[in-house]
Write a structure and sequence with these properties.
single chain; 530 residues; alpha+beta; five-stranded mixed barrel; 47% helix
């Protein structure tokens, strides 16, 4: 049996996954911030991965020296783009492992010990004082620090002032190394599982998505990320209805508990209802017609659960009937009285009856028998109800609107009930003749000019703060098609001002542009409505 604790910490496949920023689901690195900085830092060992955990804290991100955050200084120095320097040469031994950047609380404590003569207790008081952010306490600690520096005489008074200010600013939200290393090990373990066992990795993370603040957003992001590993996530299916996310035939399937509007109490009713139908007909549910599923299950669960199951295709065992037709027949069945339903179950549901195993006219035939034109037949003797049933039959034969499923409708319904569109995306219903690249192909490195057909997920404006374009507004988009989601899409001010009216969440557009020379960012030049 595989035990993640036995893994080697030198697996190139795992480190490549981290360095490429493919860290959705990886402990401590799954946020956009974590993914972005993992790509920049490119850690190749636990020491560097631990540093990354600490560098993502506000202490390093917000400590600005020479116009750059300490996080950026570390990344540039680690990657050979900047020479390593020290605030004072006396700090070299302490800060050399982190390229001259104050990363950990322990480093601040050592500095206080070496240049101010603090003992361990005093050094820990310094750490606590910074964390508590109490001005009076900090003032007392600073006095002790300055007196200590004067007594030890390793640095000048001016340098001591500068070092203390640096410690105070950097350590306000700093991390201790023991935690950082523990986090790095857990992060590496999760990245190893993702690299080597992606199917089980995604199933497990989807299973635990309910622990996230926004469960549906987490599910959507995991499904999109899974597509990049060619892993397919499917809606629940009538022959595989389980409570939780599960794996079958190399695919991941939603569990019933993860479908919106199906409560925990309904899950058991659905599963037991399906089992009862199989026992009644002596067949597997996949071989039983929709008509029989409808008349035997619809009144065993609440209507919201039934609507959800139909809308996501969970009860469409043979795919010969559209989801819209199934919804229409469910609505028709729900319009019958209890007595009429009982008559149908008794008189129109026999093994030798006129209902083929995979037929799709069972309900029409049942209503014809229920409201016969001849006096001698029929299951109801109320003339008014006969007329009502006849009207229902007529509407069943000649629906007032189209009952076919469109890709856009399926995508919308699946997003409504599952939090993500699985079978189709909105783009699948659009004219994409001009498209030459999918999101996945672009993220996998396809070169040259690209035209993408996408749905806009979100658009975020950003006011430029420096340079010739200072004060102008650009935008960052998140877009998706059926293959993947792209978060790194940029429109510079001129392009954004021209195309802003088209780029709202939910709209489908063509994006024409090129890849950034630095990474897998799409720079959009033109936008077209589709």
């Amino acid at each position: 049996m595989f035990d993640v604790r036995d893994t080697s910490y030198s697996c190139n496949k795992t480190w490549n996954l981290i360095c490429d920023g493919r860290t959705k689901g990886v402990f401590q690195l799954e946020s956009q911030l974590g993914r972005s900085w993992a790509k920049r830092l490119k850690p190749r060992n636990i020491e560097e991965l631990a540093a990354l955990s600490a560098l993502l804290r506000p202490g390093c991100l917000k400590a600005i020296v020479d116009g750059k955050s300490m996080t950026q200084h570390y990344v540039d120095r680690k990657n050979g783009q900047e020479d390593t320097s020290y605030l004072d040469e006396s700090l070299r031994n302490i800060l050399e492992p982190t390229y001259g950047v104050l990363v950990y609380q322990e480093q601040s404590m050592r500095i206080a010990q070496e240049i101010a003569g603090f003992d361990l207790e005093q050094a820990d008081d310094l750490r606590k004082a910074i964390g508590k952010k109490k001005a009076d306490l900090m003032s007392e600690v600073k006095k002790t620090f300055m007196k200590g520096c004067e007594r030890v005489s390793i640095v000048s008074k001016e340098t001591a002032e500068e070092i203390f200010g640096w410690i105070e600013k950097s350590n306000r939200y700093a991390f201790n190394k023991s935690h950082a290393v523990s986090y790095a090990i857990c992060g590496y373990w999760s990245a190893y599982c993702k690299a080597h066992f992606p199917l089980h990795f995604y199933c497990s993370y989807l299973y635990h998505a309910h622990g996230k603040q926004d469960q549906q957003q987490e599910v959507k992001e995991l499904i999109s990320d899974a597509k990049m590993h060619d892993i397919i996530v499917m809606p629940p299916k009538v022959d595989n209805l389980q409570s939780n996310f599960n794996i079958k035939n190399g695919n991941i399937y939603f569990g019933l508990q993860d479908v919106k509007y199906i409560g925990e109490s309904q899950v058991e009713k659905v599963i037991s209802g399906i089992k009862a139908i199989e026992e009644k007909y002596g067949q597997e549910i996949k071989d039983i017609s929709w008509y029989r599923i409808l008349i035997n299950l619809a009144d065993k669960i609440n209507s919201n659960a039934m609507l959800a199951l139909i809308s996501i295709g969970a009860l469409n065992s043979d795919y010969t009937i559209s989801r819209n037709k199934m919804l229409y027949e469910f609505e028709t069945w729900s319009s019958l009285t209890k007595k009429e339903k009982e008559w149908v179950l008794t008189n129109c549901d026999q093994p030798t009856d006129l209902f083929p195993e995979r037929g799709n006219k069972g309900l029409e035939t049942a209503l014809e028998r229920l409201s016969p034109t001849k006096k001698e037949g029929g299951g109801t003797h109320n003339a008014k109800r006969k007329d009502i049933v006849k009207d229902l039959l007529e509407l069943l034969k000649n629906p007032p609107y189209e009952l076919e499923d469109t890709p856009d409708w399926i995508a919308t319904e699946e997003h409504k009930y599952l939090g993500a569109s699985l079978t189709y995306s909105k783009i699948d219903g659009c004219d994409t003749g001009a498209v030459n690249t999918t999101c996945k192909e672009f993220l996998d490195g396809k070169p040259g000019k690209v035209v993408l057909g996408v749905e806009v997920v979100s658009a975020r404006e950003w006011t430029i703060k420096k340079g010739n374009s200072k004060g102008e507004v650009m935008a960052f988009l998140s877009v998706e098609d059926s293959t993947a989601t792209m978060d790194s899409v940029i429109l510079f001010p001129d392009s954004w001002s021209k195309n802003k009216p088209l780029l709202y969440a939910g709209n489908t557009v063509l994006l024409s542009g090129k890849k950034s020379s630095k990474d897998t960012t799409l720079i959009v030049e033109k936008v077209f409505q589709i």
